[in-house]
Inverse folding.
């Protein structure tokens, strides 16, 4: 009895490990070759497994994509809203928002690149889900920026453009920043936050 | 004789028109579906022509890609260097650089998106040519920013990060700006230029 339980546990653990490995390999390929450029065959051969094994775990390439999405960027809007809710002064809200966003971008660097930066726009459903999250992220920034403008503490004419500019800084970093480079993540984040705040007229 | 010349001219003109139309259609598809996601067959069917006709004009999908590249973003580094050379004061150099860059981004909005923003990274040669141009563009900014720092007129610690931030603003605009929207291109450009200058500590 105890042995049967142990055997089932080993099986579940092994299943979990294979799943995680498949997600990892698929994520790497989607990042480098794009969703369209990556076939189930590519993923299978990179993992030295069969195509049917991947279908067994995820149903389809779309299933893999959804799972990576769910484990990463789908959490972003909620985490950003929490960051804002933790402060009352809008300057502090924006600072915390930027810090948390940059930390999450680090944590999900590859996934953010897949879903926000390199996303090939081939499938309308997939694309609309990505846009939905980007829209939610944009809204978090817009609300804080509008609050700042109402208080007369910023110099921008159009909060919308400022919000896009800030997202441009953050998302572009996903392209150029290499953790193995000369500058630490903390240093890069500090510079980007200063640039963003000064950009809208808040001196640091 | 005159008739033969006229007939040849008509043929040449028609050839030119077909070429331009193929470039236009391919550019649109590369923009929406990515290079990998677009097949020669897609282009042929969008133009209601044969695949062999496309091979006749461009040799390959790669040939089409190269031609679009040559007609657009390949000119960017040269035009940006000219903008810098037209001024002596580095603040004015940066202002003109930003203005010219935004104008070119407008002119080549789709192509810039194809080559800089949505580029799928599937082919090493193609990717390295794109990176080369991005590197040259980055260098133009870096030189001006280093000059500004030498004169003690800016507040950034790392010109490299500032240059990436500025390119982030400009390239991100290719994603979100819609000419048919509420804001005019001139208004958007003005805001982005102010944001960039303030971002590095130059008041506007």
């Amino acid at each position: 009895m105890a042995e049967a339980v142990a055997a089932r546990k080993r099986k579940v653990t092994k299943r979990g490990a294979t799943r995680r490995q498949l997600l990892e390999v698929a994520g790497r390929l989607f990042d480098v070759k794009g969703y369209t450029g990556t076939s189930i065959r590519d993923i299978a051969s990179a993992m030295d497994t069969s195509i049917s094994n991947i279908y067994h775990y995820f149903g389809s390439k779309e299933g893999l994509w959804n799972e990576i999405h769910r484990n990463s960027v789908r959490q972003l809007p909620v985490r950003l809203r929490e960051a804002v809710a933790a402060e009352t002064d809008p300057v502090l809200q924006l600072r915390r928002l930027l810090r948390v966003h940059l930390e999450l971008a680090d944590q999900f660097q590859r996934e953010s690149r897949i879903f926000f930066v390199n996303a090939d726009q081939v499938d309308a459903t997939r694309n609309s889900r990505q846009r939905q999250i980007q829209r939610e992220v944009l809204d978090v920034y817009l609300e804080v920026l509008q609050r700042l403008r109402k208080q007369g503490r910023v110099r921008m004419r159009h909060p919308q453009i400022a919000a896009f500019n800030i997202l441009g800084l953050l998302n572009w970093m996903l392209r150029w920043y290499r953790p193995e480079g000369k500058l630490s993540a903390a240093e890069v984040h500090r510079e980007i936050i200063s640039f963003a705040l000064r950009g809208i007229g808040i001196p640091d």
In short: DSSP finds ten helices and no strands in chain A. The mean pLDDT of chain A is 89. Residues 72-199 of chain A form a domain with the Tetracycline Repressor; domain 2 fold (CATH 1.10.357.10). Residues 149 and 155 of chain A are 8 Å apart (CA to CA).
